[in-house]
Each structure stands twice: as C-alpha cells, then as structure tokens.
Amino acid sequence: MAIRYKIDVLAELKKKGYSSTRIREEKLIGQSYLQQLRHGELVSWKAIDVICSLLDCQPGDLIEYVNETSKQE
Known about the structure:
- It is globular, with a radius of gyration of 13 Å.
- It is mostly helical.
- The chain has one domain.
- The protein has helices at about 10-15, 20-25, 30-40, 45-55, 60, 70, and strands spanning about 5, 65.
- About 55% of the residues lie in helices and about 10% in strands.
- The model has no long low-confidence stretch (mean pLDDT about 90).
- A two-stranded antiparallel sheet has the order 1-2.
- The protein starts with a strand and ends with a helix.
C-alpha cells in the first residue's frame, strides 16, 4: 500500500488520554475503525477527521504517501 501511517495513532491517542475503552464509550470512533487502526489499515476520512480533532493535528501528520515503485528499482 502506498499510503501508510507515519505514527502509531492509537499510542498517540492514549498519550492524550483517549484509551480504546474511552473512545468506544464516548462513541468517538467505531469499533471497526479501532480494529483497522490496530492492524495499520487505513480508516475513513470521517475517522481521520475525529483523530485529527482529538490529537490537534493535520491529516499529513498522520499519513504519508510512499512511492512503492521507487523501492523496487
């Protein structure tokens, strides 16, 4: 996949006081999105929006594009 996370999103959320339990209880991000984050899979733009709001950051602080063709050359 050419787009990946630059940081461990769940670890950063936990540093800000948002444990998985709190996120679920406050219905900030759905359980399926938490699972996707655990596995390093990309989530929806809505979830990215919530994460950026909680971490007070920009989407570019979370994700990056990696040109996979240049890796293979």
